[in-house]
Amino acid sequence: MKTILVIILQASFVQHKFRLIENSKNLSGLDNLNPFYDPILKESRLKNINAVLGAAPSQLTFYKSSFDNKNELKHIFKGHSPKTVISLAA
After folding, report:
1. Residue 59: what are its φ and ψ, rounded to 5°?
2. 37 exposed, middle or buried (CB, 10 Å; 0-12, 13-18, 19+)?
3. pLDDT tens digit sequence for 50-82
4. What pTM was estimated for this model as a whole?
5. How far apart are CA 6 and CA 60, in angstroms?
6. Which domains are present in the chain?
7. Cβ neighbour number for residue 7 with a 10 Å cutoff
8. Contact 48, 80 (CB under 8 A)
């Protein structure tokens, strides 16, 4: 099963990439939801992504963490073995 890992899942860019998200059987997302951008807006976008995926919990695994958290990344890669990684981190 193809898994896609999107780092900074809430980024505006992701909103325009729903085809990629829709075609994924599994989506793992990572975002620390920091206040640099409005966390309420980010949470709203996460709900939109869930809606596109049909709110199927098996399709989306969200990690509220920073991409510089090596232990969390190891956990994600070990558990999900993503075939594609899209980093939208600045």
Report:
1. -85, -30
2. middle
3. 776 665 555 778 888 888 899 999 998 998 888
4. 0.71
5. 11
6. 3-87 (3.40.50.720)
7. 20
8. no
Tokens 């325009």 locate to 16
Alpha-carbon gap, residue 10 to 70, rounded angstroms = 20
DSSP string, 39-72: HHHHHHHHHHHHHHTTT-TTTEEEE-S-TT-HHH
In this predicted structure, what is the pLDDT of residue 39?
A: 80
Residue from 35, 42, 50 nearest 13 by CA: 42
Contacts of 53 (CB under 8 A, 6+ apart): 21, 22, 27, 59, 60
Cβ atoms of residues 81 and 4 within 8 Å = no
In angstroms, the CA 58 to CA 15 distance is: 20
